[in-house]
Amino acid sequence: MGNKNKEQRFTNAAELRVAEVGKARMVRGYAAKYNKRSHEMTDPRTGRAFVEVIAPGAFKRILQSDPDVCCLVAHDEDRILGRTTSGTLRLSEDSTGLYFECTLPDTTYANDVYASIKRGDMDQCSFAFGLGEGDDEWREGATRNAPFLRTINNFGALADVSIVVHPAYEDTEVAARKRSAEQPITDAERIDRVARTFREIQG
Questions:
Q1: What are the residue ranges in the chain where pLDDT is below 70?
Q2: 30, 83, 85, 127: least CB-packed within 10 angstroms?
Q3: Which of 23, 61, 162 is nearest to 102 (CA)?
Q4: Is the pTM of this model over 0.90?
């Protein structure tokens, strides 16, 4: 079934590296990886449990449209790290998933994020997205009590990639480079964040 509402997914970093080359600093890594199962989540519309998988190539179409995407701290638009329209955030997709590189601004919160990534306190990502009709498919679990499997085949919208603390997906990568960081988030909190983000988008 399609879903036009805004959703967020929190993803875990597999590794973290910091390097210094010149004065500019950069955060880079995979905000999402293909063929990796998420933690079990709850569908806010139906209340059913499900796990999610992103099919290879799901980001291809949205990236071809040159979307206006921001890199944020915990989805907070007051703490922007970079943006595709300014060239400070660069997105691409490959056989692994959604890759991003963000050149950090010289701001207090960016300095704090850089230091937290360097220390290993922040090593995870999140991304906010929207789906259109037919962009995803649902299958029942193998057994009666097993969660549904949701496969995302295409992203209809991509709002932001964010540096966060706790994941829904495993195996993503974030690295902080210099060159020329709370309690685990519950399903209820995730649903509340999704609802608030969607209300803001709708005005």
A1: 1-5, 10-22, 166-203
A2: 85
A3: 162
A4: no
